[in-house]
Design brief:
Layout: H1 4-14, E1 52-56, H2 62-69, E2 73-78, H3 81-91, E3 97-101, H4 104-110, E4 115-121, H5 130-140, E5 141-151, E6 160-166, E7 175-181, H6 184-193, E8 196-204, E9 215-222
Parallel strand pairs: 1-2, 1-4, 2-3, 4-5
Antiparallel strand pairs: 5-9, 6-7, 8-9
The chain binds S-adenosylmethionine (SAM).
């Protein structure tokens, strides 16, 4: 069984740093997709300066750093020490940016803090059972607050818990982590069942070019009712 932290530390060593500037010449920016200079920005989080946002699986910290430059308190948590070391090195001096090493569910269950937005870009939300993570997120979001996340869309017919492989050397087995894939409509039903409202889930097409896989982008708001009665739409 793969050690999750070790797996993500291995992944961290393979991932390049974010570019110094984007196509618009900005030194910080928000990117929800796997493509450069593509897709929506921080507006999806509906935050005002001074708000608190939580990044679940912040990686090397570029998105949280951008929110900090906009005047938010941006808390980035990640299970990987290697990812956080890179985040600290590049963005550690930014006022408003707070980084913690933690597992997403454990962090949410232990903190008393409340956030105006919780988000995850190809992050812990993709790699955690939503039956555990969604109730924990809802608990820490203020009513009306935004949960937003992005990830690769499900492959048709491959739904629920899937294996993700993190490659290593030619003579070594890859490391395996679990991820949860659903179609947009399933995410909408799942989020509503867990007490979220105004849920919008869609696949943003890839930009023009040779790569064709789009990005699943989901935005939801914490409602005041806890959850819809009845059976969960999928293994929740
Ligand atoms: C694919 S990377 C994405 C990183 C970053 N959000 C980005 O856009 O570059 C996934 C990140 O989620 C983190 N992660 C995975 N499972 C996690 C968990 N249960 N709790 C906290 N972080 C987790 C990994 O360590 C890794 O940094």
């Amino acid at each position: 069984m793969t050690d999750t932290r070790a797996a993500w530390d291995t992944y961290a060593a393979q991932r390049p740093e974010r570019r110094p500037v984007n196509a618009r010449g900005e030194s910080t920016w928000f990117n929800w997709t796997q493509y450069e200079d593509h897709g929506p920005g921080a507006e999806l989080l509906e935050l005002a300066p001074g708000s608190r946002a939580l990044d679940l699986g912040c990686g090397k910290g570029g998105n949280a750093a951008h929110l900090a430059t906009l005047g938010m308190t941006a808390v980035g948590i990640d299970v990987s020490q290697a990812q956080l070391r890179a985040a600290e090195k590049r963005w550690g001096s930014l006022p408003g940016l707070v980084l913690h090493q933690a597992d997403a569910v454990a962090f949410l269950r232990e903190t008393d803090d409340v956030y105006e937005a919780v988000y995850s870009v190809y992050g812990a939300l993709w790699f955690t059972d939503p039956a555990l993570l969604l109730p924990a997120v809802r608990e820490r979001l203020r009513p009306g607050g935004v949960l937003a996340f992005s990830q690769r869309p499900a492959v048709e017919g491959c739904y629920g818990c899937q294996a993700s492989y993190i490659p290593r050397g030619a003579d070594e087995d890859p490391l395996v982590v679990k991820r949860w894939d659903y179609e947009p409509q399933t995410w909408e039903r799942l989020l509503k069942w867990h007490g979220f409202t105004d849920v919008r889930a869609h696949v943003l097409p890839a930009p023009a070019g040779r790569r064709t896989v789009g990005t699943l982008i989901v935005q939801a708001h914490r409602s005041s009712h806890t959850r819809i009665q009845g059976r969960p739409p999928v293994g929740a």
